[in-house]
Design goal:
The complex is a heterotrimer. Chain A is α+β, with helices and mostly antiparallel strands. Helices cover 33% and strands 25% of the residues of chain A. Chain A has a seven-stranded antiparallel beta sheet. The chains are: A alpha+beta, B mainly alpha, C alpha+beta. Chain B: It holds the Pfam family SPC12.
Chain lengths: 169, 92, 200
């Protein structure tokens, strides 16, 4: 068994993972958000977005407009929520100071019960992760399946490692 | 460990001879592009993206069927590799 | 193209690349269809807008710490033909009626939504509403709504099967002036709604 050969193959595998991570971070930098691609987790925006759709976010807009579909995270929880802006109020002198009220298309009422600290509005600078610019249907169901199934994570990693080793030569 | 993988790789090769490779490279590209054009026309005619997608996938499936299995006609011009032979050498 | 895996990779790469061109073709044709149908110059008519003011004290109606907050609802007539927005790439059309206004000192610009509707097919795309009720109670961040001029407009948003979201607004507008209420009238309404102030 040639140690150097095995280590070279391991290096190739690390290279694949590292370049995937670099792509993600590069995208985050370009889109100016910590999460440039999100998966829709709930059915609160049906029939526009189904559970499992992938959304591409962009966060270089200074203001959000009413009708934009935005992704925000409730302070403290890491779950992204995809809803539409119902109302916006911004200062004319300083347009970056903007507060928003959101609501899911498929929900009966607005998002006030979801906001943390009994707040009535979201702050555009602090709470919004990004505005939805495009989408791809259903491909994100893999991540939902991985996060909800205990063994799926290991199965997926194992499959990736195996395919990279077998196809490497 | 890597010897096992190498053997496995050797079994899964299903090789194809060289003239067929050039032929296949041209043919599958042509097939897929024609498939895209036809499904574009079908889509605009039926005004349905679903019809267009189904038509395109059919063409891709036919291309895969044509290319993936190592049909007999692709292995006609196989190269003859020289077999290793044991030769007695006088070292003195 | 020697081994099975190589052939599979080559064919799937070609299929995906050509598929991307197909997606660009879909986006291009649907955009061209929208522009040639003058979808960005649609007209609409908003009329007969009557406001109704309520004062509420619960957090769900915008009240902070139980202080009284003025909420507004409107009833309106709306006519619009949104059939030109539907093509083979349209998944749904989201249409919404908004009101723009400024605060008293003209330091803040606001836009609120009174009513919205999801339209999923071309057959439902002609809007002809009389005396429709707004879906949402609307309140301002800090001030009252009485005494303000609101400019109402109808917007639309196409959610496509492939490609980016498209936004636009129709031509019709309506300027609503909410009159100041009489002090006595306000007191009567406050006590009335305080008795029945459970959120509906």
């Amino acid at each position: 068994m040639n140690l150097r050969l095995e280590l070279t193959k391991l290096l190739n595998l690390c290279f694949v993972f590292a370049s995937a991570y670099m792509f993600w971070e590069g995208l985050s930098l370009v889109a100016n958000t910590h999460s440039p691609i999100v998966v829709v987790l709930s059915g609160s925006m049906e029939p526009a977005f189904q559970r499992g759709d992938i959304l591409f976010l962009w966060n270089r807009n200074e203001q959000s407009k009413v009708g934009d579909v935005v992704v925000y995270e409730v302070a403290g929880k890491n779950i992204p929520i995809v809803h539409r802006v119902l109302r916006e109020h911004h200062s004319i002198a300083d347009p970056s100071k903007q507060v928003l009220l959101t609501k899911g298309d498929n929900n009966a009422g607005n998002d006030i019960p979801l906001y943390a600290n009994r707040k009535l509005y979201l702050n555009k600078q602090k709470d919004i992760v990004g505005t939805v610019k495009g989408y791809f249907p259903q491909l994100g169901y893999i991540t939902i399946w991985v996060s909800e199934n205990k063994y799926a994570k290991f199965a997926l990693l194992g499959f990736l490692a195996l395919s990279s080793l077998v196809g490497g030569e | 460990m890597s010897d096992v993988f190498r053997e496995l790789n050797g079994k899964l090769l299903f090789p194809v001879d060289y003239p067929s490779q050039t032929l296949l490279a041209k043919r599958h590209k042509l097939l897929v592009v024609i498939g895209a054009l036809v499904s574009g026309v079908v889509g605009v005619a039926t005004q349905s993206i679903l019809q267009m997608g189904v038509c395109y996938l059919c063409f891709v499936f036919v291309a895969l069927l044509l290319v993936l299995p190592a049909w007999k006609s692709y292995r006609v011009h196989n190269l003859e590799w020289v077999q290793p032979q044991a030769v007695a050498v006088d070292l003195k | 193209m020697f081994s099975l895996s190589q052939r599979f990779q080559t064919v799937s790469n070609t299929a995906v690349t050509v598929g991307l061109f197909l997606a660009a073709f879909i986006i291009g044709t649907s955009w061209f269809q929208l522009v040639s149908n003058h979808a960005f110059d649609l007209s609409s008519s908003i009329s007969n807008v009557t406001p109704k003011i309520n004062v509420r004290t619960s957090r769900y109606y915008g009240s902070v710490n139980g202080k009284a907050k003025e909420n507004a609802k409107v009833s309106f007539d709306l006519e619009a033909d949104l059939t030109k927005l539907f093509n083979w790439n349209t998944k749904q059309v989201f249409t919404y009626l908004t009101a723009e206004y400024e605060n008293v000192k003209h330091t803040r610009q606001n836009e609120v939504t009174f009513w919205d509707k999801i339209i999923t097919s071309k057959d439902d795309a002609v809007l002809n509403l009389t005396d429709a009720q707004s879906k949402y109670h609307v309140w301002d961040v800090q001030e009252k709504l009485t005494g303000k001029d609101l400019k109402l407009k109808l917007h639309w948003n196409i959610q496509p099967w492939v490609g980016p979201l498209v936004y636009g607004e129709t031509d019709g507008t309506f300027t609503l002036s909410i009159p100041e209420r009489e002090k006595t009238e306000k007191k009567a309404k406050e006590s009335e709604s305080a008795e029945s102030s459970s959120p509906n």
